[in-house]
Design goal:
Blueprint (H helix, E strand, L loop, with lengths): L38 E2 L4 E3 L16 E4 L3 E10 L7 E3 L5 E4 L8 E10 L4 E9 L8 E2 L1 E4 L3 E3 L5 E5 L6 H10 E6 L4 E7 L2 E6 L8 E6 L5 E3 L2 E3 L5 E5 L3 E6 L4 E6 L2 E7 L12 E4 L2 E9 L14 E9 L6 E4 L17 E3 L1 H10 L5 E5 L20 H6 L25
Parallel strand pairs: 1-8, 9-18, 11-19, 20-28, 26-27
Antiparallel strand pairs: 2-3, 3-6, 4-7, 5-6, 7-8, 10-12, 12-15, 13-16, 14-15, 16-19, 17-18, 20-21, 21-22, 23-28, 24-25, 25-26
Protein backbone atom coordinates (compact mmCIF):
# COMPACT_ATOMS: atom_id res chain seq x y z
CA UNK A 1 0.00 0.00 0.00
CA UNK A 2 1.37 3.36 -0.99
CA UNK A 3 2.06 5.80 1.83
CA UNK A 4 3.31 8.76 -0.18
CA UNK A 5 0.19 10.92 0.28
CA UNK A 6 0.53 10.62 4.01
CA UNK A 7 4.23 11.23 4.71
CA UNK A 8 5.61 14.66 5.31
CA UNK A 9 9.35 15.35 4.93
CA UNK A 10 10.73 17.19 7.89
CA UNK A 11 13.26 19.86 7.09
CA UNK A 12 16.14 19.54 9.51
CA UNK A 13 17.33 22.61 11.28
CA UNK A 14 20.99 23.38 11.16
CA UNK A 15 22.40 25.27 14.06
CA UNK A 16 25.07 27.71 12.94
CA UNK A 17 27.40 28.78 15.63
CA UNK A 18 30.07 31.29 14.80
CA UNK A 19 33.42 30.62 16.42
CA UNK A 20 33.48 34.00 18.03
CA UNK A 21 29.74 34.64 18.32
CA UNK A 22 26.86 33.39 20.37
CA UNK A 23 23.99 33.73 17.91
CA UNK A 24 21.99 30.73 16.67
CA UNK A 25 20.05 30.73 13.44
CA UNK A 26 17.12 28.29 13.21
CA UNK A 27 16.44 27.40 9.62
CA UNK A 28 13.69 25.54 7.92
CA UNK A 29 10.02 25.84 7.08
CA UNK A 30 8.82 22.48 8.40
CA UNK A 31 7.78 23.03 12.04
CA UNK A 32 6.22 20.37 14.27
CA UNK A 33 4.51 17.49 12.42
CA UNK A 34 1.20 18.10 14.20
CA UNK A 35 1.05 21.60 12.71
CA UNK A 36 0.63 20.11 9.25
CA UNK A 37 -2.70 19.89 7.47
CA UNK A 38 -4.19 16.43 8.24
CA UNK A 39 -3.84 13.98 5.40
CA UNK A 40 -6.59 11.70 4.10
CA UNK A 41 -6.26 8.49 6.08
CA UNK A 42 -8.75 6.49 3.98
CA UNK A 43 -6.08 4.00 2.90
CA UNK A 44 -4.68 3.66 6.39
CA UNK A 45 -7.75 2.56 8.39
CA UNK A 46 -10.69 0.23 7.90
CA UNK A 47 -14.12 -0.24 9.49
CA UNK A 48 -16.21 -3.35 10.08
CA UNK A 49 -19.22 -1.66 8.51
CA UNK A 50 -19.94 -0.06 5.14
CA UNK A 51 -20.58 3.62 4.55
CA UNK A 52 -23.55 5.39 3.05
CA UNK A 53 -26.63 3.66 1.69
CA UNK A 54 -25.17 0.18 1.37
CA UNK A 55 -26.19 -2.70 3.66
CA UNK A 56 -27.08 -1.50 7.13
CA UNK A 57 -24.89 -2.43 10.07
CA UNK A 58 -26.00 -5.00 12.61
CA UNK A 59 -26.66 -3.11 15.87
CA UNK A 60 -25.94 -6.32 17.78
CA UNK A 61 -22.27 -6.08 16.78
CA UNK A 62 -19.74 -3.55 18.11
CA UNK A 63 -18.21 -0.93 15.84
CA UNK A 64 -14.54 -1.63 15.07
CA UNK A 65 -11.83 0.56 13.55
CA UNK A 66 -8.40 -0.85 12.66
CA UNK A 67 -5.17 0.72 11.35
CA UNK A 68 -2.50 -0.80 9.08
CA UNK A 69 1.20 -1.08 9.89
CA UNK A 70 1.97 2.39 8.54
CA UNK A 71 0.04 4.32 11.17
CA UNK A 72 -1.82 4.31 14.43
CA UNK A 73 -5.23 5.53 15.67
CA UNK A 74 -5.10 8.40 18.15
CA UNK A 75 -8.78 9.19 18.68
CA UNK A 76 -12.26 8.03 17.62
CA UNK A 77 -15.62 9.73 18.16
CA UNK A 78 -18.90 8.13 17.15
CA UNK A 79 -22.25 9.86 17.65
CA UNK A 80 -25.75 9.23 16.35
CA UNK A 81 -28.23 11.76 14.99
CA UNK A 82 -29.82 12.11 18.44
CA UNK A 83 -26.49 13.24 19.92
CA UNK A 84 -25.75 10.00 21.79
CA UNK A 85 -22.03 9.24 21.90
CA UNK A 86 -20.66 5.71 21.72
CA UNK A 87 -18.12 4.74 24.37
CA UNK A 88 -15.07 2.87 23.10
CA UNK A 89 -11.68 1.44 23.92
CA UNK A 90 -8.39 1.97 22.04
CA UNK A 91 -5.65 -0.65 22.12
CA UNK A 92 -2.32 0.33 23.65
CA UNK A 93 -0.53 0.21 20.29
CA UNK A 94 -3.21 2.29 18.55
CA UNK A 95 -4.02 -0.36 15.96
CA UNK A 96 -7.61 -1.09 17.01
CA UNK A 97 -10.58 0.74 18.50
CA UNK A 98 -13.89 -0.94 19.37
CA UNK A 99 -17.13 0.33 20.89
CA UNK A 100 -17.94 -0.71 24.44
CA UNK A 101 -21.48 0.68 24.67
CA UNK A 102 -24.36 -0.65 22.54
CA UNK A 103 -25.23 0.82 19.18
CA UNK A 104 -28.79 1.96 18.63
CA UNK A 105 -31.02 0.26 16.09
CA UNK A 106 -32.40 2.25 13.14
CA UNK A 107 -29.90 5.03 13.75
CA UNK A 108 -27.41 6.98 11.63
CA UNK A 109 -23.91 7.32 13.05
CA UNK A 110 -21.12 9.73 12.19
CA UNK A 111 -17.62 8.48 13.01
CA UNK A 112 -14.48 10.63 13.02
CA UNK A 113 -11.08 8.99 13.31
CA UNK A 114 -7.75 10.71 14.00
CA UNK A 115 -4.50 8.96 13.07
CA UNK A 116 -0.80 9.63 12.74
CA UNK A 117 1.77 8.12 10.41
CA UNK A 118 5.29 6.88 11.12
CA UNK A 119 6.61 10.44 11.20
CA UNK A 120 3.91 11.72 13.53
CA UNK A 121 1.95 13.61 10.87
CA UNK A 122 -1.79 13.77 11.59
CA UNK A 123 -4.44 12.07 9.48
CA UNK A 124 -8.23 12.20 9.44
CA UNK A 125 -10.97 9.94 8.15
CA UNK A 126 -14.74 9.87 8.60
CA UNK A 127 -17.58 7.44 8.13
CA UNK A 128 -21.35 7.74 8.10
CA UNK A 129 -23.36 4.54 8.41
CA UNK A 130 -26.82 3.34 9.34
CA UNK A 131 -27.82 0.53 11.65
CA UNK A 132 -30.71 -1.78 10.82
CA UNK A 133 -33.59 -3.18 12.80
CA UNK A 134 -32.93 -5.66 15.62
CA UNK A 135 -34.04 -9.23 14.99
CA UNK A 136 -36.33 -9.18 18.02
CA UNK A 137 -39.47 -7.11 18.58
CA UNK A 138 -39.19 -7.18 22.37
CA UNK A 139 -39.07 -3.64 23.71
CA UNK A 140 -38.42 -2.18 27.12
CA UNK A 141 -40.64 0.85 27.62
CA UNK A 142 -40.28 3.33 30.48
CA UNK A 143 -43.02 5.35 32.15
CA UNK A 144 -41.81 8.27 34.24
CA UNK A 145 -43.60 9.65 37.26
CA UNK A 146 -45.01 11.80 38.57
CA UNK A 147 -46.79 13.53 35.70
CA UNK A 148 -45.63 16.95 34.57
CA UNK A 149 -46.39 19.56 37.24
CA UNK A 150 -45.21 21.28 40.42
CA UNK A 151 -44.30 19.24 43.51
CA UNK A 152 -42.70 19.56 46.92
CA UNK A 153 -38.95 19.27 47.44
CA UNK A 154 -39.22 15.67 48.68
CA UNK A 155 -40.78 14.24 45.52
CA UNK A 156 -38.75 11.35 44.02
CA UNK A 157 -38.73 10.72 40.28
CA UNK A 158 -39.93 7.23 39.36
CA UNK A 159 -39.25 5.07 36.31
CA UNK A 160 -41.50 2.04 35.78
CA UNK A 161 -40.41 -0.62 33.27
CA UNK A 162 -42.81 -2.82 31.31
CA UNK A 163 -40.49 -5.85 31.52
CA UNK A 164 -38.20 -6.91 34.39
CA UNK A 165 -34.46 -6.29 34.22
CA UNK A 166 -32.41 -8.50 36.55
CA UNK A 167 -28.94 -8.65 34.97
CA UNK A 168 -26.57 -6.07 36.45
CA UNK A 169 -24.99 -5.19 33.08
CA UNK A 170 -28.42 -4.68 31.53
CA UNK A 171 -29.46 -2.54 34.49
CA UNK A 172 -26.38 -0.38 33.93
CA UNK A 173 -27.41 0.18 30.29
CA UNK A 174 -30.89 1.23 31.40
CA UNK A 175 -29.66 3.48 34.18
CA UNK A 176 -27.15 5.31 31.97
CA UNK A 177 -29.92 6.16 29.53
CA UNK A 178 -32.38 7.56 32.08
CA UNK A 179 -31.63 11.25 32.50
CA UNK A 180 -32.72 13.69 35.18
CA UNK A 181 -31.36 17.17 34.46
CA UNK A 182 -32.02 19.67 37.24
CA UNK A 183 -31.64 23.43 37.24
CA UNK A 184 -29.93 24.31 39.51
CA UNK A 185 -27.76 21.22 39.23
CA UNK A 186 -27.63 18.89 42.25
CA UNK A 187 -26.06 15.51 42.98
CA UNK A 188 -28.53 12.66 42.55
CA UNK A 189 -28.77 8.96 41.72
CA UNK A 190 -31.15 6.20 40.63
CA UNK A 191 -31.99 3.36 43.02
CA UNK A 192 -33.44 0.03 41.83
CA UNK A 193 -36.53 -0.65 43.96
CA UNK A 194 -37.06 -3.98 42.20
CA UNK A 195 -36.68 -5.48 38.71
CA UNK A 196 -39.26 -3.12 37.20
CA UNK A 197 -39.01 0.13 39.17
CA UNK A 198 -36.34 2.76 39.82
CA UNK A 199 -36.48 5.91 41.94
CA UNK A 200 -34.29 8.99 41.53
CA UNK A 201 -33.61 11.50 44.29
CA UNK A 202 -30.87 14.00 45.15
CA UNK A 203 -28.55 13.64 48.10
CA UNK A 204 -30.58 16.28 49.95
CA UNK A 205 -34.06 17.59 49.22
CA UNK A 206 -34.53 19.31 45.86
CA UNK A 207 -33.87 23.06 45.85
CA UNK A 208 -36.91 25.32 45.87
CA UNK A 209 -37.89 26.58 42.45
CA UNK A 210 -35.93 23.86 40.66
CA UNK A 211 -36.76 22.59 37.17
CA UNK A 212 -36.33 18.88 36.41
CA UNK A 213 -36.20 17.55 32.86
CA UNK A 214 -36.70 13.77 32.88
CA UNK A 215 -36.11 11.77 29.70
CA UNK A 216 -34.85 8.48 28.31
CA UNK A 217 -32.17 7.83 25.69
CA UNK A 218 -33.02 4.12 25.51
CA UNK A 219 -34.87 4.09 22.21
CA UNK A 220 -33.17 1.67 19.83
CA UNK A 221 -30.44 0.75 22.33
CA UNK A 222 -29.66 -2.91 22.99
CA UNK A 223 -30.16 -3.66 26.69
CA UNK A 224 -29.59 -7.39 26.80
CA UNK A 225 -30.19 -10.59 24.90
CA UNK A 226 -33.23 -9.99 22.65
CA UNK A 227 -34.18 -6.85 24.59
CA UNK A 228 -34.10 -3.35 23.11
CA UNK A 229 -35.08 0.06 24.41
CA UNK A 230 -38.33 1.64 23.32
CA UNK A 231 -39.75 5.13 23.51
CA UNK A 232 -40.52 7.01 26.72
CA UNK A 233 -42.54 10.18 27.18
CA UNK A 234 -40.44 12.85 28.93
CA UNK A 235 -41.79 14.82 31.89
CA UNK A 236 -40.97 18.26 33.23
CA UNK A 237 -41.24 18.88 36.97
CA UNK A 238 -40.83 22.01 39.03
CA UNK A 239 -40.51 22.34 42.80
CA UNK A 240 -42.33 24.81 44.99
CA UNK A 241 -41.43 26.09 48.45
CA UNK A 242 -39.72 23.78 50.94
CA UNK A 243 -42.55 22.69 53.24
CA UNK A 244 -41.67 20.29 56.07
CA UNK A 245 -44.14 19.28 58.80
CA UNK A 246 -42.46 17.75 61.85
CA UNK A 247 -44.85 15.63 63.90
CA UNK A 248 -43.60 15.03 67.45
CA UNK A 249 -45.53 12.12 68.94
CA UNK A 250 -44.07 12.78 72.39
CA UNK A 251 -45.07 16.45 72.67
CA UNK A 252 -48.26 15.99 70.61
CA UNK A 253 -47.36 18.96 68.42
CA UNK A 254 -46.84 19.43 64.70
CA UNK A 255 -44.47 22.23 63.65
CA UNK A 256 -44.78 23.31 60.03
CA UNK A 257 -41.80 24.95 58.33
CA UNK A 258 -41.81 26.85 55.06
CA UNK A 259 -38.37 27.51 53.61
CA UNK A 260 -36.94 26.65 57.05
CA UNK A 261 -39.11 29.18 58.93
CA UNK A 262 -41.90 28.16 61.31
CA UNK A 263 -45.31 29.09 59.89
CA UNK A 264 -47.63 27.12 62.21
CA UNK A 265 -47.72 25.00 65.36
CA UNK A 266 -50.66 22.60 65.61
CA UNK A 267 -51.84 20.44 68.55
CA UNK A 268 -52.20 16.84 67.36
CA UNK A 269 -52.81 13.28 68.40
CA UNK A 270 -51.00 10.29 66.87
CA UNK A 271 -51.26 6.51 67.16
CA UNK A 272 -52.02 5.00 70.55
CA UNK A 273 -50.13 1.92 71.87
CA UNK A 274 -50.59 -0.97 69.50
CA UNK A 275 -51.38 1.44 66.65
CA UNK A 276 -48.26 3.62 66.89
CA UNK A 277 -47.65 6.03 64.02
CA UNK A 278 -44.61 5.20 61.90
CA UNK A 279 -41.48 7.26 62.54
CA UNK A 280 -39.43 8.70 59.71
CA UNK A 281 -39.75 10.86 56.64
CA UNK A 282 -42.88 10.50 54.52
CA UNK A 283 -43.84 12.31 51.34
CA UNK A 284 -47.32 13.68 50.70
CA UNK A 285 -48.95 11.37 48.13
CA UNK A 286 -52.20 13.23 47.60
CA UNK A 287 -55.14 15.04 49.19
CA UNK A 288 -58.74 13.84 49.57
CA UNK A 289 -61.45 16.15 50.87
CA UNK A 290 -63.53 13.18 52.11
CA UNK A 291 -62.55 9.61 53.05
CA UNK A 292 -64.63 6.90 54.73
CA UNK A 293 -62.37 5.20 57.28
CA UNK A 294 -63.25 1.78 58.65
CA UNK A 295 -61.41 -0.30 61.24
CA UNK A 296 -61.97 -3.49 59.25
CA UNK A 297 -59.66 -2.12 56.51
CA UNK A 298 -56.69 -2.57 58.88
CA UNK A 299 -57.76 -5.86 60.41
CA UNK A 300 -59.80 -4.66 63.38
CA UNK A 301 -62.66 -7.03 64.09
CA UNK A 302 -66.09 -5.61 63.40
CA UNK A 303 -67.91 -4.76 66.63
CA UNK A 304 -64.78 -4.87 68.78
CA UNK A 305 -63.77 -2.09 71.17
CA UNK A 306 -61.36 -0.64 68.60
CA UNK A 307 -63.74 -0.84 65.64
CA UNK A 308 -64.73 2.40 63.91
CA UNK A 309 -66.56 3.67 60.83
CA UNK A 310 -66.05 7.42 60.40
CA UNK A 311 -66.47 10.13 57.77
CA UNK A 312 -63.13 11.97 57.60
CA UNK A 313 -62.50 15.38 56.00
CA UNK A 314 -59.39 17.23 54.83
CA UNK A 315 -57.36 14.03 54.56
CA UNK A 316 -53.75 14.36 53.38
CA UNK A 317 -52.36 10.92 52.48
CA UNK A 318 -48.77 9.94 53.40
CA UNK A 319 -48.85 6.13 52.91
CA UNK A 320 -50.62 3.92 50.37
CA UNK A 321 -51.94 1.69 53.16
CA UNK A 322 -53.95 4.58 54.57
CA UNK A 323 -52.01 6.81 56.97
CA UNK A 324 -53.27 10.38 56.75
CA UNK A 325 -53.05 13.78 58.38
CA UNK A 326 -56.74 14.64 58.79
CA UNK A 327 -59.50 16.34 60.73
CA UNK A 328 -60.46 14.46 63.91
CA UNK A 329 -63.12 16.53 65.71
CA UNK A 330 -63.95 13.54 67.96
CA UNK A 331 -60.49 13.73 69.61
CA UNK A 332 -60.02 17.48 70.13
CA UNK A 333 -59.86 16.95 73.91
CA UNK A 334 -56.76 14.76 73.47
CA UNK A 335 -55.03 16.83 70.81
CA UNK A 336 -51.89 18.35 72.29
CA UNK A 337 -52.07 15.98 75.29
CA UNK A 338 -52.35 12.27 74.35
CA UNK A 339 -52.09 9.81 71.50
CA UNK A 340 -55.46 8.17 70.87
CA UNK A 341 -55.66 7.50 67.11
CA UNK A 342 -55.24 4.26 65.16
CA UNK A 343 -52.09 5.51 63.43
CA UNK A 344 -53.10 8.69 61.65
CA UNK A 345 -52.24 12.23 62.76
CA UNK A 346 -55.43 13.90 63.92
CA UNK A 347 -56.13 17.60 64.49
CA UNK A 348 -59.06 19.99 64.66
CA UNK A 349 -61.12 20.55 61.53
CA UNK A 350 -59.83 24.12 61.17
CA UNK A 351 -56.19 23.07 61.48
CA UNK A 352 -56.72 20.15 59.10
CA UNK A 353 -58.25 22.49 56.53
CA UNK A 354 -55.27 24.85 56.87
CA UNK A 355 -52.82 21.97 56.48
CA UNK A 356 -54.77 20.61 53.48
CA UNK A 357 -54.63 24.02 51.80
CA UNK A 358 -50.93 24.65 52.47
CA UNK A 359 -49.26 21.41 51.38
CA UNK A 360 -48.87 19.75 47.99
CA UNK A 361 -47.74 16.39 46.68
CA UNK A 362 -44.02 15.96 47.38
CA UNK A 363 -43.99 17.95 50.62
CA UNK A 364 -42.44 16.33 53.70
CA UNK A 365 -44.15 14.97 56.83
CA UNK A 366 -41.54 13.80 59.34
CA UNK A 367 -42.66 11.84 62.42
CA UNK A 368 -40.36 11.71 65.45
CA UNK A 369 -40.49 10.22 68.95
CA UNK A 370 -43.18 7.66 68.20
CA UNK A 371 -42.94 4.12 69.54
CA UNK A 372 -43.78 2.81 66.06
CA UNK A 373 -41.42 1.31 63.49
CA UNK A 374 -39.67 3.50 60.91
CA UNK A 375 -41.38 4.08 57.58
CA UNK A 376 -40.11 1.53 55.02
CA UNK A 377 -38.19 3.04 52.10
CA UNK A 378 -40.41 1.39 49.45
CA UNK A 379 -43.73 -0.37 49.05
CA UNK A 380 -46.01 1.88 51.12
CA UNK A 381 -45.43 5.32 49.68
CA UNK A 382 -42.23 7.32 49.31
CA UNK A 383 -40.01 6.50 52.27
CA UNK A 384 -36.96 7.08 50.06
CA UNK A 385 -35.47 9.66 52.41
CA UNK A 386 -35.21 7.08 55.20
CA UNK A 387 -32.16 5.62 53.44
CA UNK A 388 -28.93 7.55 53.99
CA UNK A 389 -27.02 8.59 50.88
CA UNK A 390 -24.53 5.73 51.03
CA UNK A 391 -27.31 3.12 51.20
CA UNK A 392 -29.17 4.89 48.44
CA UNK A 393 -26.12 4.77 46.18
CA UNK A 394 -25.75 1.04 46.82
CA UNK A 395 -29.03 0.59 44.97
CA UNK A 396 -27.53 1.95 41.76
CA UNK A 397 -26.24 -0.39 39.05
CA UNK A 398 -23.49 2.18 38.37
CA UNK A 399 -22.15 2.61 41.90
CA UNK A 400 -20.96 -0.50 43.68
CA UNK A 401 -23.67 -2.95 42.71
CA UNK A 402 -27.41 -3.32 43.11
CA UNK A 403 -29.37 -4.29 46.13
CA UNK A 404 -32.77 -5.87 45.74
CA UNK A 405 -35.64 -4.31 47.69
CA UNK A 406 -39.12 -5.70 48.39
CA UNK A 407 -41.69 -5.24 45.62
CA UNK A 408 -44.36 -2.62 46.35
CA UNK A 409 -47.61 -4.03 47.75
CA UNK A 410 -49.88 -2.51 45.18
CA UNK A 411 -52.98 -4.24 46.56
CA UNK A 412 -52.82 -2.09 49.71
CA UNK A 413 -52.71 1.22 47.90
CA UNK A 414 -56.19 2.61 48.30
CA UNK A 415 -57.30 1.24 51.68
CA UNK A 416 -57.93 3.84 54.41
CA UNK A 417 -55.97 2.64 57.39
CA UNK A 418 -56.80 4.54 60.49
CA UNK A 419 -58.59 7.41 62.10
Amino acid sequence: MSTSPRHRTLVSCILLVASLGTGAIACGSGGHPLSAEPYDAADQISFNTASGDSAKADPDKPLEVTADDDGRITDVTAVDAAGRYVAGELSADGTRWHSTSPLAANARYTVRVSTEDEDGAPGREGLVFDTGRPLTKKRLNVTFGPKTGTYGVGQPVTATLNVPVKDKAARAVVERALKVDSTPSVEGAWHWVDDKELHYRPKEYWPTGATLQVRSNLEGIKIGDRLWGGRAKPVKLTTGDKVVAVTDAATHQMTVYKNDKVINEIPITTGKPGFDTRNGVKVVLGKEYFVRMRGTSIGIARGSADDYDLPVYYATRVTWSGEYVHAAPWSTGSQGYANVSHGCTGMSTGNAEWFFDNVREGDIVKVVNSHGATMAPFGNGFGDWNLDWQKWREGSALAGGTKEAPSPQQQARLRPESA
